[in-house]
Amino acid sequence: MTPTGWQSFEGVKETNKSYTLTITLADGKYIECSGGHQLLVKLLSTDETGFFAADLLEPLKYSILTESQEYQKIVSIEKSSDSKPLYDLINVSNGYEYYTNGILSHNCAHIENLEELWLGLKPTLSTGGRAIMFSSPKGKNFFYQLWMGAETNEYEKDRVGLHCTSVGKNGFHGIKLPWTVHPERDDRWFEEESRAMSSQGIAQELLCSFESSALTFFSQADIDYVRNLSYPPIGYAGPNGKGNDMHIWKTPVPDHKYVIAADVARGDAEDYSTFHVFDTNDSEVVAEYMGRIAPDRFGEFLIEIGKKYNDALIVNEKNTVGIATAIKLRDSEYKNVYYDQDLAEKIISMTPDEKKDVLPGFTITSKNREPILENLEQVIRNHQIKIYSLRFVEQMETFIWNGKRGQALKKRHDDLILAMGIGLQVFTPSAAQQGYLGMMAANQNMANSLLAGMSRGFKDVDNKFQGKKLPAGINKNAVKFDSELKKEFWWMFR
Prior knowledge:
The chain has helices spanning 114-121, 142-150, 187-195, 199-205, 220-229, 295-308, 322-332, 341-346, 352-355, 369-381, 390-397, 415-426, 435-452, 483-489; strands spanning 11-17, 20-25, 30-33, 38-43, 48-53, 62-65, 71-80, 84-90, 97-100, 103-106, 155-157, 162-164, 175-176, 235-237, 246-248, 258-263, 273-279, 284-291, 313-316, 399-402, 405-408. By secondary structure, it is of the alpha+beta class.
């Protein structure tokens, strides 16, 4: 329901804010909203009306228009610092106005697909007229691109705000309206408001800052750390020796161990197939690939690069389209491929026929996706790995929190980030004996100890077996494999 009757709208959008306001009117109506929610109000002292942000309202000084077409005085505004979901209508027809609990709201902020909309609207201005756009900063979105196009080096400041004195390259003037331009706000007000807001909320709603307003997954310090390490590749490569989608910073070093972690895309869509080559000796990424390639051909390319980097361990993502890559890796009989940890132990005792039904690779699920990303963030924050890629930096800058989920901004990419996260589940920088590699090394060490102890008892076996009763069939000088012993120890003798 709107002031012009029932109108269509495109959907409902959920958002999470660091605080909410409950505004109660004299007639008992109330609304729960964010501080930036727009309401049609009247200033009682002057009868001035207009859409105001909820944060700017005060009890007994303002009244709000209701469905009865009467302005009802605000009797209380309660702020809650508890985060809770809020819901807005998207693209309400005929003015973006609608009633919530009988109270008139306005939500021009949630115009979906603004970039496409602007492409259609802009040509109409050629016959005369002008466009005025206003928004809170919220990361580096389309409005940010417009703002950057409006920036000039010539500014002047008056009582209203900061104004361009000339037109930017896209024909817009830029105007900033931070909290300081409001005549009734002072430092005390700013401090009180800031206590209940996140750093992103302060940047967005009070400081007019694009740089800090996005709910970016990586901190600016983390992004700067990787950017400062970055430098141009020393070489390029591609499948069949063609193309430059693979960037190379360091060539293989004899005796170094390498891990290749890959994220698989369809090959004909907007996403890219990617991989990183990790040098586990020096905790650095020495090469990366980002290109569009068929999943089975991607598997062949992974094998080609794996052989060049000392028969690197290949860790392929095997969700959906990644299955085709996993099949290619399995059928190639490339020896150094990754299996999920529950399969890594079982596959040793499988027959060749049984192995044909098992696919190598790493499975991403709804349960492990966020822990994977959190581990990636922690490794970068603690400077445990060296990354030299500016392409990776670009994806860090547009990788955001969407509720509780980390993902790329619309029309941006996160393929390099996901591949990096997969790799860091297998290889732990600065602690190479942890994770999957550590488990495999520990298994090998235990097997070596057991073999060495066959001629002199089990004194050198890993402490796991010290002080325990030996299984039937073992004496201090020899090993006899009966059926039970085989089940317990065969996996060590890979």
